[in-house]
Write a structure and sequence with these properties.
By secondary structure, this protein is mainly alpha-helical. The chain is built from five helices and three strands.
């Protein structure tokens, strides 16, 4: 178990940021001490690092991150329900239809997350292509001027 100071060091976030993320519902400590201090588990730290990655690597807004976190929670709940009630069971008739419906629900839960990530990747690829075009023009112009300089009597 870690106190907020230790989590801040591990995640390279400020205590203020951790509290703000908690206020937004992005992360939550696993509990509190008798005196009310937040305590975090290794799993909590991993969850915080995933939120930080979404922010830093994807450039996702806190609203988008919250949506992804909520969809992730929903997916885990649905997956757990599926595993408890349907996995490794021979089902037929109505039970089989329920299993199919549950898998469709899981699919519907993951699809928006995937689409959001895909849109971010596409936008990053567009930005990268723009930078590549600019860099190519700069290098081309520099080479042109270098050749002109070498060919002249400078």
């Amino acid at each position: 178990m870690y106190k907020i100071d230790e989590v801040a060091q591990k995640t390279k976030l400020t205590k203020r940021a951790l509290r703000y993320y908690e206020e937004l519902g992005l992360v939550a400590p696993s509990g509190r001490t008798d005196s009310g201090y937040r305590v975090y588990t290794d799993e909590d730290v991993e969850r915080i690092l995933r939120v930080k990655d979404m922010r830093d690597l994807l450039g996702a807004s806190l609203h988008e991150i919250k949506e992804m976190v909520e969809l992730g929670r929903l997916y885990e709940e649905q997956r757990e329900f599926y595993n408890q009630h349907f996995k490794n069971r021979d089902l037929d008739g109505l039970e089989l239809l329920k299993r199919i419906d549950m898998l469709k629900t899981l699919e519907d839960t993951l699809t928006p997350q995937r689409n959001l990530l895909k849109a971010k990747i596409v936008r990053m690829q567009e930005l990268l292509a723009d930078f590549d075009d600019k860099l190519e023009r700069i290098v081309s112009k520099r080479m042109e001027l270098t050749n002109e300089y070498k060919g002249g009597t400078h």
